[in-house]
Design brief:
heterodimer; A: Rossmann fold; globular; B: alpha/beta; Rossmann fold; 8-stranded mixed β-sheet; 6 helices; 8 strands
Chain lengths: 212, 218
Amino acid sequence: MIERILREIEEFYARRFSEFGPTARGVAWKDEEAQRIRHRVLLEGILPEHRNKPIAVHEIGCGLGHMLDLIEELRLPYRYSGSDASAAYLAEARKRHPGAEFTVFNFITDPLHERRYDYVFQSGAFNFLPPSAGWEGWRDIVFSVIEKMWAMCEFGIGFNLLTDAVDWRDPELFYISPCEIIEHLRGFTRLFVIRHDYYPFEFTAFAYRESK
Amino acid sequence: MDRKKIDSVMEEMDRYFADRIARFGFTPEGVGWKNAEAQRLRFRVMLDVVLPRDRSRRVEIHHIGCGMAHMKDFLDEMGLPYIYSGSDALPRMLEIARTRHPETAFTPFNLLADPPADKKYDYVVMNGTFHYLASGVSWDEWRDAVREMMGKAWEMTKTGMAFNLMTDRVDWRDPNLFYVSPAEVIQWVRDLSRLFVLRHDYWPFEFTFFVYKEGAVD
């Protein structure tokens, strides 16, 4: 079962990469602007006390490392690293950013990343709904990935999802209520944020350690 | 909520504040906050409702349930350019607010009883307005009243509004405070707009919502 899910994910992204190359569309975003706005919102989740510091930011499901493009463009002092399950993406990410660290990590099947980072982010990888997983199956996987991200972070995590309050649904995509995400996050922290202000159909959730 | 009940809520709140003021004077404690720091934290978070594009502009911020208008002190201290105005249901509070800030516009307005004011402001903020659960008012009654008040405040804003509430995940409850799940409030907010922010990151026991007009955000 899990093999089929992984294969569907692999095929979904491989198809886009071969069709659109090393671009935002090559990692399944509509366009560059759609991808940038997500990265910008995620980076805004870094707490004010960390914003001018060389904190470690790790992105799981980093694709081609486009988040680092934005970090460099905005001249943010963060130390970025990325991981992804796709060797093809990582090869291209390393070519695009030879100075950055990219590691192979399948956030569904691999055990916890042994390294700890100040912040752990994820953008877009929860949106594709592998047909074999079904809605509930994918929700459980997403929740387990969120828990892995939490275990990997010192201060906080951030990730985005499509909201369930939409007029029209693409059967290939995963939609979930922010309320359900809140209930899940409350299982491990009392400090969190839902940003549902940049698109009507999507939101970004942040969870922070209480010892912050 | 019927008029008689509203009047009794107002009387109780007025007595509550009269007692606080007698003990603590015109201070944050005098309007029911634990201390100045607790009140300032709320102002700081709440004013994040102002969109980045408006942060150096003279946008209008209307404060419903302004109390003694300590928020105006905070804005002045931070050197923020916003045009502040306040309203409150209690004449006692308006009088103090006017004494403290003679140049600022303060108007009598009862969010629970009055229809929404005609004037629309860039932003409307409510700080601690929904926290107090008066005796004789059930949780369900106050929930309905809060939703209605949110709806009225929404009518009075052009860009967005902010309000805070106490979270339901607490170890201990004060019978005179109103606690609610942020997930439930998301459902209420979604009836107004698809653009909102939930800030549950500054204090484990409380959260703040920002709700934006869909046409007003870029």
